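Weekly sync notes, structure subgroup
Attendees: PM, AL, DS (notes)

Item 1: joint prediction request from the bench team. They want all two components modeled as one assembly rather than separately. Inputs as received:
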Amino acid sequence: MTPPTTVRADGARETGAACAPGTARTAARTLARCRDLVRPSLSAAIERLHPWPGEMAAFSLGWCEVGGGPADGSFEGKGLRQTLAVLSAEAAGAPGESAVAGAVAVELVHTFSLLHDDIMDEDGTRRQRDTVWKAYGTGPAVLAGDALFALAVQTLAETPGPHTAAAVGRLSKTLSGLVRGQAEDLLFVARPWTGPEAVRTDEYRAMAELKTGTLLGCSAALGGLLGGAPARTVAALDRAGRHLGVAFQAVDDLLGIWGDPAVTGKPVHGDLRQRKKTYPVLAALAGQGRHARELSALLNSPQSLDEAGTVRAAALVEACGGRTATLGEARHHLDAARACLLSVPLAPRAACEIEVLLEFLLHRTV
Amino acid sequence: MTPPTTVRADGARETGAACAPGTARTAARTLARCRDLVRPSLSAAIERLHPWPGEMAAFSLGWCEVGGGPADGSFEGKGLRQTLAVLSAEAAGAPGESAVAGAVAVELVHTFSLLHDDIMDEDGTRRQRDTVWKAYGTGPAVLAGDALFALAVQTLAETPGPHTAAAVGRLSKTLSGLVRGQAEDLLFVARPWTGPEAVRTDEYRAMAELKTGTLLGCSAALGGLLGGAPARTVAALDRAGRHLGVAFQAVDDLLGIWGDPAVTGKPVHGDLRQRKKTYPVLAALAGQGRHARELSALLNSPQSLDEAGTVRAAALVEACGGRTATLGEARHHLDAARACLLSVPLAPRAACEIEVLLEFLLHRTV
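Output from the run, pasted for the record:
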């Protein structure tokens, strides 16, 4: 059933014409539908890899265990990027199939970036099991990432159609943006918590837009582009995806401190324990009060934070308004994403599926 | 002065119509001319990188020291790939300038592959100084490689002109081939020296064609393509480059055992000391005689090879015909490269510059 939507003279939908309120189950159904549509082509792409990086790629996608045996499916990602590509093509009035090559490319790039970022960040666990470098070694993980990177470009470049060159151009810009975001993120580690050299929240937002927003923007833009949308619509989809990326990162940061370990699979207050520079902490430290001073003293202490220390740090971040500010950041960028989508004519059903997805992402617990 | 060349009815040059014999100095002049032509665009591309991976990229290219201070130029590579791209455009009758975007892309890809391969191979020294991962750390080196990879695709994709899409398609295939070759090479390490699982010379050749030949073939093909050469010429240039790659690897393997340490900057018999599976050793072990058995016993011994052991191993490789076989392999593939070039009509002066370069590569000492 297509939700009712009015369209203005310039083709844009009225802000007031809301979609039927979605549930987590609706969003999950959309994600599953799009993953199912993309899966055969994504599998076929992975099959083209040399068997060794191919196994590592499949492991990283949650499709198999070390050694190649099938996994039970519980390690697979949500498939947000491929879903966004498919829905964007549908929002442009094209069948979701037209976006599949783009969906495969962005999913491969996402897998590449997780793989290499885990090496750079020395993260040994992802989705409750070993990361690729931990399971297979650093050198092989570098190789697997490179193979995925090359495959992403090749898959898209080999897709016949009038939009291929533009799509490859956009993907290549995205790759550079991703790497730039990762460079910024790595450099944040060495910067102080306070003082003139401290990471500001606007710098953090710019990093998040590059590291997370660029690829989500590209996913939406590629879907629109391959679906034959006009340039103005492609640009709006791109901007919506970028805002979504910033919001997504903010929610991730909230989960990294206050997420339920039973659901996220990460330790409680994990990001604080690891002293990650995330939005809630940076926003909290931007305050000048007594709580902010106590928080910075805790974070600057040479000893590692014990249980009591992390509980206290989380309470201080909250007392300084870091949690509220981050929720506001997420909400603001989701609203901005929604405004971008409302600024251009989109097929109502797909546009609503995207909006339900946005809402789900704000309230997700994992 | 253009050397005299006769052209057959089908446009191909006569085999007998030889170029004037080149000297190492002629080849060096050609390399320097092409590097000078490409350098401004290569510099401009590197300038686009985030400053941190940008410095690592410039370090890897031999342009700067750690920290960004200028290097004295002695760490720069020959620039074989960019030269081949420029000469191939000229051989297609176009100005060398038309190949510059392709030359930049292949040089960036080459730099990326050295950077990541050094991590995977755990090589700490290249061109007589620290490799990037040794100087900057593994994580940052992964990042710098990724940045170069992305930049290569972006630079080429952004080049205006009718051949861009085809050029990007070819580059993306090349990237996948490179990674596949590196996967094979890494897997060779764990395989035995003898018996049914031993690496055969034809497997080694296939690996060398992927790991070294694919990018040299792509360099020549991109030059031809961007220079407007017909498909048949582009294909011949590609094949010539692939053969050149196999020959280049064979010469590299000879230098890895018998190269002069004062010139190569690598320890004498270095590849034997590290028990690298290279063509001379694999060819030697393919024999069944007493010397081959002694050699395999040495290579299979659990202790590391001492000075006397490596000297003896080198003598045994030679006695088993490994050195002669590798020289034959290099010569054969250079002849095959030459035959590819002779099979299509090419502008004589550039074709001769390529031939002089081939000869120089066979006799190079570093």
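Discussion: Chain A touches chain B at residues 48, 50, 52-53, 116, 119-122, 138-140, 142-143, 145-147, 149-151, 153-154, 157-158, 164-165, 168-169, 171-173, 175-176, 178-180, 182-184, 186-187 (CB under 8 Å).
Action: AL to compare against the crosslinking data before next sync.
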